[in-house]
UniProtKB/TrEMBL annotation, chain A:
This is BING4 C-terminal domain-containing protein. Residues 307-385 form the BING4 C-terminal domain. One of its GO terms (biological process) is maturation of SSU-rRNA from tricistronic rRNA transcript (SSU-rRNA, 5.8S rRNA, LSU-rRNA). GO terms for cellular component: 90S preribosome; small-subunit processome. WD repeats lie at residues 228-269. PANTHER family: WD REPEAT-CONTAINING PROTEIN 46, WD-REPEAT PROTEIN BING4. PROSITE patterns: WD_REPEATS_2, WD_REPEATS_REGION. InterPro entries: BING4_C_dom (IPR012952), WD40_rpt (IPR001680), WDR46/Utp7 (IPR040315). Keywords: Nucleus, Repeat, WD repeat. It comes from the Eukaryota.
From TrEMBL, chain B:
The keyword Metal-binding does not apply. Residues 281-308 form a coiled coil. The keyword Coiled coil applies. One of its GO terms (cellular component) is small-subunit processome. It is found in: Nucleus, Nucleolus. This is U3 small nucleolar RNA-associated protein 14. Residues 345-397 are annotated as: Disordered. It holds the Pfam family Utp14. Keywords: Coiled coil, Nucleus, Phosphoprotein. It comes from Paramecium octaurelia.
């Protein structure tokens, strides 16, 4: 404890305040908890429950929202909000409809290959097409065309930073600010990427690799913050929990693994060959494998042995997602869009900064303005985001080095003024002669470097030749030896 | 049908246009004489009356001359021109449809005759009614789909051939694209897949077979490296490579080879087409003519000069007689007309030949036969296996396109193999002679037996261990698939080590004389060897590894780089009040906003220390007396 009496008193007062406020918040949370939460009980005899078994006992509102749309234009990608679903077929069929009121918002055909779709701020949506990324209105009008990131295959949207992240086919990641239209950072990640997902708590992007590695990225640094070897095969897909403490991945070798991100260790695993994953806010895990969807209830605690529910789709599943704050699971297949009930999956409470679904037009406009005012800067994304406002713990040596480097960079950027020289020396001819000399010196340095490189290559070639001749001699000896053995 | 319609349409249009022109002119001609009120009639009437109107007459004549040109019918040449123009405009409209198709076909390498696919576009707006009336709509929809499925199945049977051809065309395009990929990463991935399959095959083989294959690989690679990459770049060699021995350019040679390929392909395609219509009589005539030519050749060869060596002549006679007998047998069979008997006889003949180690190459060299007789163990069986693959003339007629190409491509390497075998035999013969003549075989045997029974010293053991080739063979023999699966793990560990190496400070340049005492009588320091440098590096890396966050986690890399941009959100120095950073951080554990706390606790947390009620007078600040004295 501190020696100062004033400080010690201040700290004690703080402790008292924290305890009292924590107690109050706990009490209020107990009051707000829903008393009648519907759930499905599982018998021991049949651990796999089918949704068709309890479909009759559901209320009418839920039954009406069980949707099965038949579409014929290629495998579909989806993104779901509490009101609308956005669909993008591979051959260019794009549609948005309100699933709550069964109302079509827009539908059109871009005669181009589409890779991914995602909903962004103010009910707009972005589509990753073959030529570039397009942003459309809720009525399907083309608003923007982002030419900078070409051949993007995966999209992700960070709602509190207003950033659209796009991953390229060659592994190039770009962050673009939607409000200003400025590209914040682009850098090269792993070339053989398979999936892209954001940590909702942290706004850090995770990229799954073909080599079985998951890497975390932020816009500040070009290199990966952490990288974790998860599977022997490639990482097919992954999800983060709502807390940001857990990571769930599937590998191509046929396992689902649950990782604790606080300790970076494996928690539990199951041998299931899944291709798509989705995690609800309450912690129900859905895994798509072929035409089946299998769900587990308490996967974050470690109960992965007994599945909770099972659903059978009409064809192969391409994309899967839970609807936020609702008890529905949306999935897109090769030729259909399907939506089913999953009891006890949605979180009933809204976050304070989250935009609730039922709002007036006036309220929505106000929230839009407020969100823009409270926009978080992209530099605040890091693994240490909980340490904002605390003391920097890095050593003084590193900080001094950084400051020096900054000063040097600033000095190099400054334009040097030419000195005023004595009379007669400031002639135009002499000044240009000096310039030519500088140019020649720079060229000389370049040529010398080139020469040294060429010499080094020649030497290496000579050494290789020697080594290979030796090897050939030895092989000849070996062959002759064997012959002698045969004769003897 | 379309062409006929167009021609008909053209004729009709032309006829209409011509009719219109004629009708217009007819109307004009008809109007003029019918008009009662005419200028010419007026003038005539005035002249008859006896009035002077010469000036009016001249003006009228001028105008009349000009009008005459308009009223006259057009010449036939002009009419033809107009007709041609009309015809050209009509034709252009028809050609416009075909221009893009012709252009596409001209540019593409092969022409696509398939029809365009009828893409069935389904929309949500079509099924929106089903959404509203869910129960009824879904039932209706399902019923309709079942009807559609039955209809589609009937269509599919007709479309299956089209789909196959479409798929083939699509696959060809795909393979063309894949072949043009130049990225290194793609090649690396492809190489890895290939290596995996090879290793799986290797694991199934026995260790003896494995060694042989490894030796083959090593020889081929060594030769490749020397021949391709590090070849000599003399003027003589470069000219040889470019123009060859006969001073042909590379392009000429390539074109010659390509021509051969195309000819073979064309032949094979013709044969494929003719398979259905196989003319037995033609084929028989050709075969008989060929056999007769061979018999003539054999007779000519018998009349040639005989060598001085008796045993060679005997062999030659035997060979020629055998070949003669076979040809005569075949001739009799063909003339009698039993096709089934031919194939049986051929197989019998081949078996007989194999027993006698006989080569049925009529034009074969005699030297080969000599070597075969001397070294029955090495070459006799191998040659027989190759012979069976060579197709007889009767079977050549039925060759497909693929087999003929593959045979052509495999001809050159086979020739090289044969040449290599002959060379090997020669070398082996020489060595054998040396052994027999110069040394006693018994002595050599005893030497080897001694070496085997001798107890190995430490130096010999070291020599054995130092041989990298043997070690490699042992390692590859004991290769397990488990190692193959850990490829990801090895790559990850390499990445981790590379990350740790970047943290190490840069080593000073190892220049001579610097950092050591100089003078008389001081021993010179030897520069460090590469092994020592490596060991030092490993020590440093291990020290770094202990300090890292991921020291105990093998499957995790946590980067230790400082995020400079994030540093502006942190407090750079500890304020003067606090002794530790923990004390400072403790004040900021609790968030103050109403979003995280209830309203009452929020008001309590943000309450100011001094509370003043409204209406209370606040006096201005005064300097205390103790300070005032000092001033």
């Amino acid at each position: 404890m501190a020696k100062d009496k004033i400080l010690s008193a201040k700290l004690k007062q703080q402790e008292f305040k924290t305890k009292s406020t924590q107690l109050k918040t706990q009490k209020i949370a107990q009051l707000l908890e829903p008393q009648f939460q519907q759930s499905v009980e599982i018998d021991d005899e049949r651990p796999l429950l089918k949704i068709s078994n309890f479909k009759e006992y559901l209320p009418e509102e839920n039954v009406q929202n069980i949707i099965n749309l038949k579409l014929k234009q290629g495998p579909y990608k989806l993104s779901v909000t509490p009101q609308t679903t956005y669909l993008a077929g591979e051959s260019g069929h794009i549609a948005a409809f309100n699933w709550r009121h069964k109302q079509l918002e827009c539908e059109f055909d871009v005669k181009e290959k589409c890779y991914d779709i995602i909903s962004i701020a103010q009910r707009n949506f972005a589509v990753a097409q073959k030529s570039s990324i397009y942003i459309y209105d809720p009525k399907g009008v083309e608003v923007h065309k982002i030419r900078e990131c070409k051949q993007a295959t995966k999209l992700e949207y960070l709602p509190y930073h207003f950033l659209l992240a796009a991953l390229n086919q060659n592994g190039q990641l770009t962050y673009q600010d939607i409000t200003q239209g400025k590209i914040i950072s682009t850098y090269r990640t792993t070339p053989s990427s398979l999936c892209l997902k954001q940590n909702n708590n942290n706004a850090i992007l995770g990229i799954g690799d073909q080599m079985g590695v998951v890497r975390m990225y932020a816009p500040n640094t070009g290199t990966s913050l952490t990288s974790m070897l998860c599977h022997k095969g490639g990482v097919m897909s992954m999800t983060f929990s709502r807390d940001g403490n857990h990571l769930i991945t599937t590998g191509s070798e046929g396992t689902i693994k649950v990782w604790d991100l606080r300790t970076q260790k494996l928690q539990s695993q199951v041998a299931v060959n899944a291709t798509n994953l989705a995690l609800s806010d309450k912690g129900i895990l859905a895994a798509g494998r072929g035409t089946d969807v299998v769900m587990w209830k308490n996967c974050l605690i470690g109960d992965l042995k007994t599945p909770y529910l099972r659903y059978k789709a009409s064809s192969m599943i391409c994309d899967i997602d839970f609807i936020k704050h609702e008890d529905y699971l949306a999935m897109s297949t090769f030729d259909s869009y399907e939506q089913t009930v999953v009891p006890e999956s949605g979180e009933p409470f809204f976050d304070t900064y989250e935009q609730p679904e039922l709002q007036n037009k006036k309220q929505r406009l106000e929230t839009n303005v407020r969100q823009l005012v409270e926009k978080l800067p992209p530099e605040s994304i890091s693994l240490q985001s909980h340490r904002i406002g605390t003391i920097d713990r890095t050593s003084k040596m590193i900080i001094e080095k950084e400051q020096k480097r900054q000063i040097e960079e600033q000095a190099s950027k400054k334009i040097k003024k030419q000195k005023k020289k004595m009379r007669g020396r400031n002639k135009i001819g002499k000044r240009e002669k000096l310039k030519e000399l500088e140019r020649d010196q720079k060229q000389q340095v370049k040529w010398q470097e080139m020469l040294s490189d060429a010499l080094r290559v020649k030497r290496a070639e000579k050494e290789k030749k020697k080594f290979e001749t030796k090897l050939l001699d030895r092989l000849e000896q070996m062959s002759s030896k064997e012959f002698i053995r045969v004769v003897s | 049908m379309g062409k006929l319609n167009k021609e008909q349409r053209l004729e009709k249009q032309l006829a209409k246009k011509v009719e219109k022109q004629d009708a217009y002119q007819q109307v004009k001609l008809q109007e003029t004489p019918e008009d009662d009120f005419n200028v010419a009639n007026l003038i005539q009437t005035l002249e008859d009356q006896g009035q002077q109107i010469d000036s009016v007459k001249t003006q009228y004549l001028r105008v009349h001359e000009k009008a005459r040109i308009v009223q006259e019918p057009e010449t036939q040449a002009e009419r033809d021109l107009q007709e041609r123009k009309v015809a050209a405009t009509v034709m252009k409209q028809d050609i416009k449809k075909w221009l893009p198709i012709v252009k596409k076909n001209r540019e593409s390498e092969r022409i696509d005759f398939t029809k365009q696919r009828n893409v069935q576009i389904s929309k949500i707006s079509d099924t929106s009614n089903a959404l509203l009336n869910n129960h009824l709509g879904v039932k209706l929809q399902n019923a309709m789909e079942e009807v559609e499925k039955v209809e589609q199945k009937q269509e599919l049977n007709g479309q299956s051939n089209q789909q196959k051809s479409n798929l083939q065309f699509y696959n060809d395009l795909k393979m063309k694209k894949i072949s043009s990929i130049k990225s290194k990463i793609y090649k690396q991935i492809k190489k890895k897949k290939g290596n995996k399959e090879k290793l799986k095959l290797m694991a199934q083989l026995t260790p003896a077979e494995r060694r042989k294959e490894i030796e083959k690989l090593r020889l081929s690679r060594a030769k490749e490296r020397i021949t391709l990459r590090h070849s000599t770049k003399n003027k003589y060699v470069s000219q040889l490579l470019r123009f060859g021995g006969d001073k042909k350019s590379l392009k000429q040679q390539q074109s010659f080879l390509n021509n051969l390929k195309h000819q073979l392909l064309a032949k094979a395609q013709l044969n494929e087409l003719e398979d259905g219509e196989f003319d037995e009589e033609n084929f028989r005539e050709q075969a008989i003519s060929q056999l007769e030519q061979e018999l003539l050749d054999i007779e000519r060869r018998e009349k040639e000069k005989q060598n001085n060596f008796g045993f060679l002549d005997k062999q030659k006679k035997q060979d020629l007689q055998q070949s003669k007998s076979i040809a005569q047998k075949l001739l009799t069979m063909l003339k009698s007309g039993n096709d089934d008997a031919i194939q049986l006889d051929e197989s019998e003949n081949q078996e007989q030949n194999s027993d006698d180690n006989y080569e049925p190459n009529e034009n074969g060299d005699k030297d080969k036969q000599k070597t075969n007789v001397e070294n029955n163990e090495f070459n006799g069986r191998a040659n027989f296996v190759n012979e069976t693959k060579q197709l007889t003339e009767t079977q050549k007629k039925k060759i497909d396109a693929k087999t003929s190409l593959s045979n052509y491509l495999n001809q050159e390497p086979e020739k090289q193999q044969q040449q290599n075998k002959i060379e090997k035999q020669l070398t082996s013969q020489e060595e054998k002679k040396q052994l027999i003549e110069g040394l006693n075989i018994k002595n050599i045997k005893q030497k080897y037996e001694k070496q085997v029974n001798q107890k190995l010293t430490k130096q010999d053991l070291k020599k054995l261990q130092s041989d990298p080739d043997e070690l490699l063979q042992q390692n590859l023999a004991n290769f397990n698939l488990v190692l193959d699966e850990d490829e990801n793990e090895n790559a990850f560990i390499d990445e981790k080590i590379k990350d740790m190496e970047e943290e190490l400070p840069p080593e000073p340049a190892n220049t001579k004389g610097w950092g050591s005492w100089a003078g008389f009588g001081i021993k010179e320091k030897k520069p460090l060897t590469q092994e020592q440098i490596l060991q030092n590096k490993i020590k440093k890396i291990r020290e770094v590894q202990k300090k890292r966050q991921d020291a105990k986690l093998d499957n995790v890399i946590i980067s230790e780089k400082r995020d400079a941009k994030f540093a502006k959100y942190l407090v750079p120095k500890l304020p003067s009040e606090f002794a530790n950073s923990q004390q400072f951080d403790q004040l900021h554990t609790l968030p103050l906003g109403p979003e995280w706390n209830s309203l009452t606790s929020h008001s309590a947390l943000t309450q100011p220390q001094i509370v003043t009620k409204a209406g209370v007078v606040i006096n201005p600040v005064r300097i205390p007396q103790q300070v005032n004295k000092l001033i």
